[in-house]
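Before relying on records like the one below, remember that each one covers exactly one chain. Contacts with other chains, cofactors or solvent are not represented anywhere in the record.
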Amino acid sequence: MQLIEAGQYTSACSKLEEVVRLVPDGVGAQLTLAECYEISGRLASAWSAYLLAESSAAREQQSRRRRLARKSADALRPRLAQMVLDVPRAVTGLPGITITCDGTPVLPGRWGEPFPVDRGEHVIVARADGRVSWEEKVVVPSDGVTVRATVGTMPPAAEPAVKEKASGATKPPPPPVMKKGSGTAKPLSVKASMDAEAAKAPTPRGAAAHPTRADGDGWFGGAWGFQKKLAAVAGGMGAMSIGIGIGASVVAVTKRDESHAYCRDGDLCDAKGIALRAGSRTAADLAAGALIAGALSLAGGVTLFATAPDAGRGANVRVAVGAARLDAHVAW
């Protein structure tokens, strides 16, 4: 409301649009947005916003607001500028034909019929499968007038030329395979050479099995077994989630209390009050989810810890390394 009073209608309407997006059932926000549009001269947008507020108020059983929205919409209707899109028959039959006005689709049922628009410049775009798109800017000079625009022809889109390289050079043949008894030796690939060298190299005596992890080390051994360590992780995550849930609950209550200063009659709030209440609901949802997840994770951790067996032998991994091979043995 402060931005509207300061004459900053563009910023005010943008913020209210975001509030309506976040709280789609907020009748107060929809009415305030409609008023912002009307004050800024966007009468068609204001008329649509009043109709939306009327529908929401009827759904929420707010009869006073429903009557206010209907009265405001009826007062604007005679002042609205209108546009008529004439679509030739040759265009209506194109496959996949779509027409938009400022990015908003204009359905076929409204082609050739007047529909409300704000005064100012509008961009009309028509697209169809396999056709060059058509675009035109239409200026509505003032409120209360009717302007017409005719969608132009849409020629077929040029297919990309497919050019094949006409080169006399042929693809080189693959290298001949070396056969037993041939008189000419061919170089081997890098991988084949490495495999051959590895096959020839003897396994050194130092390649005896060396343990890479002693019994009882790592996650699977020690004073606690794997299950108890997993239980500790689950319990820690559960405690952290519960902490987040408590913090989100505090935020939800704080935002709800702060919103009272920007609301009157219980649910009639300005933009800041609506935003605070939306944030309070979001924080409350987060708190509920975090508390439930934390409780489940904590309970799972306690169950895992209580049912964990006594720590036994850990995993023992032994690896033998040679010039030509790598052997791994795992024992439990």
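The domain at 81-150 is CATH 2.60.40 (Immunoglobulin-like).
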